[in-house]
Specification:
- It is a single chain.
- This protein is mostly helical and 266 residues long.
- It is globular and about 55 Å long.
Length: 266
């Protein structure tokens, strides 16, 4: 027993081709941007800064996602044809790279606009997994980032000739939808935690939870191979982010604990 997916990644509106993945990614950005605009007053972030902030983040996200993908996917071939590095319409965007690029762009914008980066990061924390979950819808339908073979009853078989997944009739883990569900659970947890943590910690909790999610999901991601210690690039990246986020979280908790103790003695 398995689920058959016969979905053409490229649709058409009359003679105009439609890239479903690009469309859902755009919808994810729009939904995430709307949520950020709606939540901004709760985080004391001026709404008149949101448009500029989003523009910087979109550019940083696309550049970071593309660069991360290029570096880890046959980089020498891109050096031989450098123009291909900018051919995003061919596909090839990596989420972790987009996260790095978007975060760096947000940091630079907040420095320029004299905003508190920690507040802005907390503001975006629940919106990021919601936008990501929307993008995973067409990703799963198109067979991008397909899973490893499985005998579970919800395994998926891709049958469309244009699918990105192998057309071998083998049921595979719907790894894209595992991540979609995980993203929504993380978003729910973060929304519940708003206003209950120190400033900047909501974003750190997002990084910790998402890194754990990605580390385990990539064990059933079939579209990439291990690179070291039996782990894949994204898993090594997840471990690095997890370690850094935990270190910052623990350090700030200790620092605030010492400050509170000092105040209690005065």
């Amino acid at each position: 027993m398995s689920i058959e997916i016969n979905w053409n990644p490229i649709g058409h509106l009359g003679p105009v081709p439609i890239n479903w993945y690009g469309l859902t990614m755009a919808i994810g950005f729009l939904v995430g941007g709307y949520l950020v605009w709606r939540w901004a007053p709760k985080f004391v972030v001026p709404r008149n800064r949101i448009d500029g902030l989003l523009l910087w983040i979109i550019v940083g996200t696309v550049l970071g996602a593309r660069l991360y993908y290029v570096v880890q996917n046959d980089f020498p071939s891109y050096l031989r044809a450098p123009w291909r590095m900018f051919a995003v319409w061919e596909g090839g965007l990596a989420f972790f790279g987009g996260l790095f690029g978007g975060t760096l762009a947000a940091y630079l914008y907040t420095r320029h606009a004299r905003l508190a980066f920690s507040r802005v990061a907390d503001l975006f924390a629940p919106a990021i997994p919601i936008g990501g979950a929307i993008g995973r819808i067409s990703c799963g339908l198109a067979g991008m980032d397909y899973g490893t073979p499985t005998k579970l009853p919800w395994g998926v078989i891709y049958t469309n000739a244009n699918s990105y997944a192998p057309l071998d009739g083998i049921p595979r883990h719907p790894a894209q939808y595992y991540e979609l569900i995980g993203d929504l659970l993380i978003a729910g947890i973060l929304i519940k935690l708003r206003g209950k943590l120190l400033q900047g910690h909501l974003f750190l909790v997002y990084l910790i939870l998402f890194s754990v999610l990605r580390f385990f999901i990539f064990f059933v991601r079939g579209s990439v191979d291990p690179v070291a210690f039996g782990l894949k690039n994204a898993q090594l990246t997840a471990l690095a982010i997890l370690s850094a986020a935990l270190a910052v979280l623990i350090a700030t908790l200790k620092r605030n604990g010492r400050i509170a103790l000092t105040h209690s003695r005065t």
